[in-house]
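Mods, move this if it's the wrong board.
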Amino acid sequence: ILVLAKTEPTQWQPTMSTVLWAVAVVGGCISSRPLPPWEYTMPAGGIRGIAWFGANTTGFENESQLEALANYSMVVFGWQDFLTGSNYTGELVRTITDLVVEQAQRVKARYPNTAVISYIDGLRVQPFYKVNHAIMRDPNYQDFFLRNSSGGYIEATTYCKQMGQRMDDPKCLCWYWNWSNDSAVDFYLNELVLPQISKSGFDGIFFDGSDGWLRGTWTQAINVPTGYTAQNALETLVGVHKRGAELLFKHQKYAIYSEHLLDTNATQQAYIASEMATTPYFRFYEGFKPTQAYIEQILNETQQTVDALPVIMHAGASPFSHVTDSLAAFLIVAENYSYFMASAGWLDDGWTWHPEYDLECGSPLGPATVVHESTGTAYTRLYTGCTVTVNCTQPSSSRTASPALTGAPLLFNCSIFHCTCQGFADFYGTHAGHGFGCAGELAQDWWRGAKCNADADCPCCKGPACALPNAAPCICPKGPPRGGSCKGQIGMHSMSGMP
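Not the wrong board. C-alpha cells:
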C-alpha cells in the first residue's frame, strides 16, 4: 500500500517550508524511508516501471527521439550527452551538467508524469564538468583526488575508452575523488551537486560508479589517513551517500546510487542496509541477471523488510532479443518504486521498446512465494492479469556456484485470447483430443485447469500465435488438417510459447 501526500491529483509539489513525505506500509508497519517525490503511476497498459537510460552525444533530443520516450515510466540521461556535439569543450562555454539538466527538463515538460533523471559521476572527477575542470590541476586542491606513490593522480580512463578517444587525452582523462578527505566531499556536494539540484523541472540524479570506492583504488593512494582500513572505506562511502541523498531530498529530488552485486559481501551489505535504512535513495543494479543471487538479494531489499528500498534493474539486451528471463525475475522482486530497463548500450540507439513490456499483468496480489527444494528454488508471484514463475536449479557440478535459470522463466497472460476456451483454441490452433497446436507448457496447464474442450476454426498449428517469432513447437498428430483459416492481428509477441 502506498500512502502519498500530494496537493494535486497528478503532481506532488512539496515546498521548502512544508516537506511532504511519502511512506510505504509493509506488512502492517510504516516504513521510515521517504519514498521518491513523484507518483509511481500505473500505465494505461503494460507493465509498470519500465525505464530508459540513454544519451544523445550530439545535442538535445529531436522530435522523433522525444516520441520514443513516451511510454517509459522513468528516463535517465547519461554522461555521454552533448560530448561529441561540443567536442568535450562544453565546460569552456557552458557547463555540460547544465546541458544535461536542461535535457532532462525538456523531457519532463513533455511528459510530466515521467520521472526524469540527470547524471553526475559518484567516483571519478570528469574534466568535461566546468567546476571539476577548474580545480583538477590546481595544487591547492591536489588532495581532493587520490594520488599515487609518485605524487601524481591515479587515473581513470573509462570515459576516454568508451568514447573511442586516446587514453591520455585530457578532455576525457579522469582522477578519482578522495572521499576520505572531508573537504573534498564538501566541495563535491556544494559546488557540483547542489547547483544542479537547486534547479526545478526534473526529479533526481544518477550517481555513477557509486560503490567503486570499495573496489580498493584508495589502497594505492598516499593521501588517505594512516591506518585506513576496508571498514573505514565502507563507513566513508555510507557517509557520503547519506549526505548526498539527504541533500537531494531536501531539494525535492531523489538519489540513485549505482551499485554492483559483487562489489560488496554479505557483511558489508548488512552494514549498508542498517546504516541507510531511513535514507531516501534508489539502488541501481547495473548488469542485472535473472539468477538466484540477484533475486534473493533484491527480495531482501523490497519485500522482506519494513524499510523497502526503491530499486532499478538494468539488464543487457539487443534490440532484437527477448527479455523474458530478466523481466520475469523483475516481476518476482518488484515492489513500489521498482524499475526495469534493458538495452544494448548507453546511447539512444541502444534502446528499444520490447513487446514483452506490453503484457497487461496488472498489479501484484501479494509478495512472491518461495519454495526451496534439494534440486533448486522456485519463485512464483500472482498478478491480477498474469502468473510469474521463475525456476532456479543448482548446477550438478558445483554446489557453490551461483544458481542460474534453466529454461525460460514463464510468464502467462490469457487476456490475448479473452481467457475463453474457444479463444485459446483459435489463438493456438488447438483441437481438443487431437493436438495442442503451438501452445506452450504453461498455456497447456491453463487449458487443463479450465477443463476446455474446444476446436479451432483453423487447422492445427495454424492459429495466429504460431506465426510469432518465439512460438512453441507444434503439437499436432499426423492426419488430415481440421478446420479452415484463422484471421486476426496480434498486438504482442509470444513469450516462451505463450501470449
